[in-house]
Amino acid sequence: MSRIVIIGAGQAGAALAAKLRGLGHQGPITLTGEEAAPPYQRPPLSKKYLLGEIGAERLYLRPAEFYAEHRIELRLGLRGARIDRAARVVEADGTAIGYDMLALTTGAVPRRLPAAMGGDLGGVHVVRTLADVDAMAPAFRDGARVLIVGGGYIGLEAAAVAAARGLKVTLIEAADRILQRVACAETSDWFRALHRGHGVDLREGTGLVRLSGDGHVRAAELSDGTRLSVDFVIAGIGVTPATDLAEAAGLTIADGIAVDTLGQTSDPAIWAAGDCASFPWRGGRLRLESVQNAIDQAETVAANMLGAGLSYDPKPWFWSDQYDVKLQIAGLNTGFDRVVVRPGEKAGISHWYYRGADLLAVDAMNEPRAYMTAKRLIEAGRSPDPALVADPAVDLKTLMAA
């Protein structure tokens, strides 16, 4: 019976281990993670957990006894230091773990502000792990001044929590608009108005020059000439795939650990899934940072490690919670050339992305019915007439039948 070792105890690693057992694998499974906590959900960290609405135990993907009951050896606090591909051994913190097949689910690491810019001062935080959020939580006190660097979803979610907690929030985005990399101008406009309506000082086209302080950050100099007094800073400037271990082992890297459609790396005994992996997609390569991809790709890899031969074809979906707004996204908007705006019920709205006549994706703000309709259409490869989508008098059921 093959011994399978999984490095990375996040969403993908946990899903892969559970799926292996669910598919009947009887051999040993070892799941290793760098953090002390068992596998947990990351999305609520910058939302309900930071707000104090849920405790750490509510984040855990499985109860602790699940791993023992399913004979999954969970080894926490270990760093995958080296892979000996010839011997098929992982060396982690002085421990050697042999494998027949290895899966890398190492995730991604947050980009940090450079030390030369003051990024190593105390009070400068990132949002990725439970420890990251625990470290910044005491600073979330009424009236505190926070600077958030980056207008992507992580930065906007942190701004929403901070504003809701009564902090004085300044958010800067170096690009011309927030969400520029991931969303259309209409979605950016909508969220800009939302945050400014909640008192966030949101500045686009504004970069950070430097942070300063006496060991702890006290001030920020911005590219517009402003000097701000701050109590702490959150950097939400993206992530990079965690490929160091794979690269040192000589595996092929291409915007992540390069895998084929099955999830296999350039070494047939090593597989990869989740935020760390890039895979073939529509003539190019794609790497997705989402819960959907972490679970679906990991479960496909689990099946393929057991010989299923399944090609991974993602059906992407994402979400973001900000204030009382739930943003739901289906599909990928890459290459869109038109956005159709559909007014919804009450204050809801949805933005439908088209390339020519083809529906690619949707952003739905407090519009769950529009989201579900668009998601089904996209997954079925169907594209309703944009004129029907734009007309709020046209029932969503009609779009499904069109």
Automatic annotation (TrEMBL):
Ranges for domain Reductase C-terminal: 317-400
Cellular component terms per the entry's GO annotation: cytoplasm
Entry keyword Oxidoreductase: yes
Residues passing through the membrane, by range: none
Residues annotated as domain FAD/NAD(P)-binding: 3-298
Protein name: FAD-dependent oxidoreductase
Source species: Rhodovulum strictum
Alphabetized UniProt keyword annotations: FAD, Flavoprotein, Oxidoreductase
Domain of life: Bacteria
Pfam families attached to this UniProt entry: Pyr_redox_2, Reductase_C
The protein's required cofactors: FAD
Entry's Gene Ontology molecular function annotations: oxidoreductase activity, acting on NAD(P)H
